[in-house]
Amino acid sequence: MASRLFRSILARSCKTSTATVRVPLCAQVGSRANYSTEKEHLAQFPGAKAPYTEKLDVLEPEVENGIPIYRVMDRDGKVFDLSHEPSIDMEELQHMYKSMTMLNTMDKILYESQRQGRISFYMTNYGEEATHIGSAAALKAKDLVYGQYREAGVLMYRGFGLDQFMNQCYGNSEDGGKGKQMPVHYGSSEHSFVTISSPLATQLPQAAGSAYAFKRAQNGLVVICYFGEGAASEGDAHAAFNFAATLECPIIFFCRNNGYAISTPVSEQYRGDGIAIRGPAYGMATIRCDGNDVLAVYNATKTAREIAVTENRPVLIEAMTYRIGHHSTSDDSSAYRSVDEVKYWDQKDHPITRFYSYLVSKGGWSEAQEKEWKNESKKKVLEAFARAEKRLKPDWKEMFTEVYDEMPEDLRKQMVEMEKHVELYKDQYPLKNYAK
Predict the structure, then answer these.
(1) What is the pLDDT of residues 99-154, one digit of tens each?
(2) pLDDT of residue 22
(3) Is there a smaller number of Cβ atoms within 10 Å at the N or the C end of the chain?
């Protein structure tokens, strides 16, 4: 939809009142190119194929009202056009809703635990739950996910357990990463989710490379790469978009445009019409959707996946949403945005509230179920939290392992030195808190 709109805008800006576009001569002469400079033919420069014009037009970035934002439901959960209501059975819809609300509950408890000094760091997902669950539900279980750092809901939907979330945030002996990562830097090969890395946008070119490997393997799978609109300003984003487009890779670039790159608002981040407008410029099919509408996100991702698999080409999705929470526990968003602004999105256009209204209207959820589920989900999160907090920290020797396939000699010497040091000063270290 977005790419068609972009092409129509471009065509209107370039058309003339006298010239008629005809099939270029080069298209009629086999593989040999005959370049025509006559105005009745399309220009055949190697770098662009477009009609000529004798009118000097400037294509302005503010053309029309911007790329439309696809949606399925209004804020009260009412579907606009029933032909766009996805065929999802009620059990699956309930699973989607439970994933969104469980994520919200986990966020509240882990955020408060960081404020109490019980974990070192945390990032909430408030307001962006629909972007996670709507997209995850439209993917295949083995489709490979590259996240940025605010995609915990994708893992939760895929079955990553509460104990696994808690163990990672505590960095205890049961943590799959053995304490080597910051909290919220999840990863799971079982759930086809590549471990999060802190440097911004590094996942983008990596994802393009994985998608190229999928293309060569012809395995029928896609790669989805999540990023924020701030990460799109990094050079890695350009490299990823261009490689994926020119190599025709089966990848979905999923941009969560939540309004802020930490403290930098979009008004200072870019001047164009968001991130979606960049898709056609790189030669990518593009969709812009309402990121607070879980059904719109589902439809957009399902369509993108079909294009990526059947046509072996990248698709860019820009999901328009709003980050209700602080960027992280290291951030105080009240310093750069008003309380009233946050309150509006929390109370008037929250994705969970919208989906709740939709489920109730379909007879798939009720106030009684909501009350029961809130109590049950909170209990489950608190129990997993308590278990993780009691577990021992990883064996300190783990800091030397799994960086290299075979430990190099200099690292082995360091470990031996560390062993001697700990043995000598064992009464100075809380070794009872660490696994052996």
Answers:
(1) 999 999 999 999 999 999 999 999 999 999 999 999 999 999 999 999 999 999 99
(2) 41
(3) C
Query: Which pLDDT does position 403 carry in this prediction?
Result: 85
Residues carrying an active site annotation: 112, 198, 327-328
| Residue 262 backbone class (left: φ over 0; alpha: ψ -120 to 50; beta: rest) | left
345-357 in b/e form (b: 16+ CB < 10 A) is beeebbbbbbbbb
What per-residue confidence (pLDDT) applies to 198? 93
Q: What angle do CA 105, 372, 329 make, to 5 degrees?
A: 10
> Residue 46: its pLDDT value, please?
82
Compute the distance between CA of residue 286 and CA of residue 276 in angstroms, rounded to an integer: 6
pTM of the model: 0.88
Torsion angle of the four alpha carbons 297, 299, 303, 306, in this order, in degrees rounded to the nearest 10: 100
- Tell me the residue type at 417: E
Specify the amino acid at residue 149: Y
Rg (CA), the chain: 25
Residues in the chain where the model's pLDDT stays below 70: 1-41, 62-64
- pLDDT at residue 37, as a whole number: 52
- One-letter amino acid identity for 75? R
How would you write the chain as a 3-class SS string?
Answer: CHHHHHHHHHHHHHCCCCCCCECCHHHHCCCCCCCCCCCCECEEECCEEECCCCCCCCCCCCCCCCCCCECCECCCCCECCHHHCCCCCHHHHHHHHHHHHHHHHHHHHHHHHHHCCCCCCCCCCCCCHHHHHHHHHCCCCCCEEECCCCCHHHHHHHCCCHHHHHHHHHCCCCCCCCCCCCCCCCCECCCCEECCCCCCCCHHHHHHHHHHHHHHHCCCCCEEEEEECCHHHCHHHHHHHHHHHHCCCCEEEEEEECCEECCEEHHHHCCCCCCCCHHHHCCCEEEEEECCCHHHHHHHHHHHHHHHHHHCCCEEEEEECCCCCCCCCCCCHHHCCCHHHHHHHHHHCCHHHHHHHHHHHCCCCCHHHHHHHHHHHHHHHHHHHHHHHHCCECCHHHHHCCCCCCCCHHHHHHHHHHHHHHHHCHHHCCHHHECC
Taking the C-alpha atoms of residue 356 and residue 364, their distance in angstroms, rounded to an integer, is 9
